[in-house]
Amino acid sequence: MTEVIEPAIETVTIDVVLSALADPVRLTLVRAFDAAGDWTCGSDVLKDTGVAIGKSTLSHHIKVLRDAGLIRTRVSGIRRLVTLRYDEVEQRFPGLLTMLREHGPARAAAESPASTP
């Protein structure tokens, strides 16, 4: 079985996490992994997001998120399954992922005042 190296959560720094989250595709991925709630394939989680990217680009974004300590990857046969390290990241940076969850694009659109013509 292939081992995937992930940083220990205590070595993760906020600047690396924020840099990873600054990319809109990676932010969408983190929110999608959060919504999935369990181990899922990266390409499967993107299906409902409206984001269309190639496999190599997806692999790059997943690597950046993994290197930033935001996700965990597990190899299952030929697939790589991913999950958000929600509890660990929340313990290291309290409120960060909760804020992303609460201020997601769907919630922000629902809470914005209706424009009048």
For the report, how would you describe the main beta sheet? 3 strands, antiparallel
List the helices and strands in order. HHEHHEEHHH
In helices, the fraction of residues equals 40-55%
Radius of gyration: 15 Å
Q: Low-confidence runs (pLDDT<50, min 5 residues)?
A: 107-112
Q: Which strands sit side by side, in order, in the main sheet?
A: 1-3-2
* Average pLDDT level: 85
SS field, number of helical segments? 7
Give the overall shape. Answer: globular
Describe the structure.
This protein has 7 helices and 3 strands. By secondary structure, the protein is mainly alpha-helical. Helix 2 crosses helix 4 (55-67). Residues 107-112 have low confidence and may be disordered.
Can you lay out the helices and strands and say which pair or pack?
Blueprint: H1 14-21, H2 24-36, E1 40-41, H3 42-46, H4 55-67, E2 71-76, E3 79-84, H5 86-92, H6 96-102, H7 105-111
Antiparallel strand pairs: 1-3, 2-3
